[in-house]
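User: Okay, second chain of the day. Same drill as before: sequence in, structure tokens out.
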Amino acid sequence: MRYNITKQSLKVQLTTITSSILPLFNTITSTAIMTVTAHLYHPDFLPACQTGDFEAVTKILNHETPQVSTAQLQDGLTEAVQGGHLAVADVLLSSGASVNRTAIHRAILRGDPATFKVFIKNGWDVNTTEFEEGTALRRSVGNPPLMHFLLTHGNADPNLLSMPPMRGRTRRAASAFTTAIVAEGQPGADAIRALLAHGAELEPNMLHSAIEASCRWRNVPMSKDHACAERVRLLIDAAAAQKIKEGDKEKDKGVQWYLNYLDPKKKGTPLHCAIWWRRLETVQVLVGEGAVVAGSALYRGMTVIQAARRRAEMMDGQGHEEAKRIWEWLTGRRWEDRGREKEEIEDGEDGEESSTLTAEENGAEVAENCACGENTSTGMGRDRPYLGFGALDMKLTLFGHNN
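Assistant: Same drill. Structure tokens below.
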């Protein structure tokens, strides 16, 4: 017999066969997936971890089928840590769960040193830098009992940064000490003292970091200027007390080296920075401790006096009188008597005369040569400075910050 099969008829037959097979295939696949899922996830395991039912958890782990998967162990650890069920967390870790990023995050939120004691008991390295938020010690700033435990029982290193780049960039989370420098109020000061006692290394631009951070402090029981000045005093005292390592020629000038450090990230000296953030008391502390005013390092052509006048002119009419008071204190002149003449122009490092006192058009655009700040074209809100990982990556805006 001869069959006359056309292309169209073959297509119809294939469609019919496919429509008959697919439902059966889908049914088999769904059944297989449900079977595997049931095997991997014991239905009573997570509820037992959530409620801290140690007996039920150990029974499921040791005797029952289906067995608990590694993924479910991790989920169970997260639930146990969040609920503070440390006995359950301990048995999960000994059964194969690991201290991952989520577990650390939940433990930090609880703030209980006992949780980290369980972690350390099960082999967790307190100095791990694998998470982009930084070390556990960095994240414990503001929790004195937890910080003390990590320093004394875990030998936490206050100088470590996080290691992995974030989204292809090389920015890393700040060290615990940098985080303490920018933390507001008494908790920040206490953290600084504790970290210094356990080997924290002073950073060249630590004064800049503290001054910049003061614009974000909201809960200080005093003016931000006074709080900033107190933080600067604490860091200066730390610089005076530090022991210079043999061969560390860069820091052989002691306190003066920090007071007059010209930040290579274009933030000027600490005095430039304090002027920019209108911190009169902080300026007075810096000068009183030996920061150089006359003939000081230029910041893109501006001396300290020139930067003070530029800032006062920018703030004129905006209700920020502190900028004028800083210029008056530095020069010994009244702002109203300043006249319209140009201030003395000092030679830059390259010997060329330069000045940045000329006002920008319409007074709104700021200088690339402004101290301690960047252009407002960053896209950030006028009164919302952006802090990335520590104060060293801050995008600072120029207007609108309350004192």
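The CA atoms of residues 322 and 356 lie 21 Å apart.

User: Thanks, on to the next one.
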